Amino acid sequence: KQEVTQIPAALSVPEGENLVLNCSFTDSAIYNLQWFRQDPGKGLTSLLLIQSSQREQTSGRLNASLDKSSGRSTLYIAASQPGDSATYLCAVRRDTGGFKTIFGAGTRLFVKA
Amino acid sequence: DTAVSQTPKYLVTQMGNDKSIKCEQNLGHDTMYWYKQDSKKFLKIMFSYNNKELIINETVPNRFSPKSPDKAHLNLHINSLELGDSAVYFCASTQSGTVFRPTNEKLFFGSGTQLSVL
Hints:
The complex is a heterodimer of chains A (113) and B (118). Chain A is mainly β. Chain A has strands at residues 4-7, 10-14, 19-25, 30-38, 44-51, 56-59, 62-67, 72-77, 86-94, 101-103, 107-112.
């Protein structure tokens, strides 16, 4: 059974700091991994999707890496801004046998001005 | 112009009532989902439909019945609502392809329906 864990559960940093959010999964047979952002009272927005054959994806100040064999992914946020404050969720899609995407519990990020 | 839209946004009802939440996507996706987000903000998959066919049915009480009249719609009907059903319900969609030719598309979410059972 796939389990997704995110560490830390919450993080508070001053503006301008570079930070890393961690995600680990127990079953390495994944098809892809996505990082999402959720603002309070809102839905989820997909930030980056890494296919199982890829090692990383970049979008602006965000960089996500994937190490499938060790069951780990990191989301790197450069030069954090108060507008980055949100909950960041990691999700993995199973490799064949269905279309299930399993989510971690998220990391709540607060960037102080 | 919203990609995944669900209604209503808020739903307050009494225990024992029956209610429905509707979801529509205009992205041409072949797979739609219902997720439940509890008070601890943990997202748990409930159902998935691929081309109107039920693919995933997690351990959800049979008071919850999804219905997909076509690929663009996935509705959720809940009978005999209980206090523990209070949560935010999210609809999502993606283009999954098939087992033999899967695709790598992002998951798109609706803005959620906050259900409060009193």
